[in-house]
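queue> pop job 88
queue> type: inverse folding (structure -> sequence)
queue> payload:
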């Protein structure tokens, strides 16, 4: 069985998301601050009339912070619960990967809470992130309250 993944860069680290969870990739736009949002939420953006939160992937994975630039990209994604955008340095590829080229995280790194697996490509290893685990229940609740307050609800 073959799956497709969107590969993106965070510094010199290659990461991936299942293609089915990616709605689109857009160039960086101005992010509007969202008061009382969880620390990993940079703010919100308007994508085709939908206001969606923007997640700081670097903060989530304790990577070195850097200034966001206009060359960065937003990967607009969705989970069963919500849509959100991830700030990435660049989207570099969409790849197909055979099941035998995947190592599921539970078998190799059982404590890696945000990773779904590792993809073994000819050019090296790529970490596959688990979008469903990006926000804890507390962060999800806090984000919902902040989004509701931002809408004036």
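queue> result:
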């Amino acid at each position: 069985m073959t799956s497709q993944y969107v590969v993106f860069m965070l510094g010199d680290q290659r990461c991936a998301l299942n293609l089915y969870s990616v709605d689109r990739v857009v160039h960086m736009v101005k992010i509007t601050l969202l008061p009382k949002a969880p620390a990993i939420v940079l703010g919100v953006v308007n994508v085709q009339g939908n206001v969606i939160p923007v997640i700081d992937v670097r903060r989530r994975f304790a990577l070195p912070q850097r200034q966001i630039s206009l060359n960065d990209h937003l990967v607009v994604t969705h989970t069963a619960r919500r849509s959100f955008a991830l700030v990435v340095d660049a989207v570099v590829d969409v790849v197909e990967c055979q099941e035998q080229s995947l190592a599921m995280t539970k078998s190799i790194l059982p404590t890696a809470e945000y990773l779904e697996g590792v993809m073994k490509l000819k050019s090296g290893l790529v970490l596959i992130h688990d979008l469903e685990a990006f926000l804890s229940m507390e962060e999800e609740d806090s984000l919902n309250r902040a989004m509701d307050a931002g809408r004036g609800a």
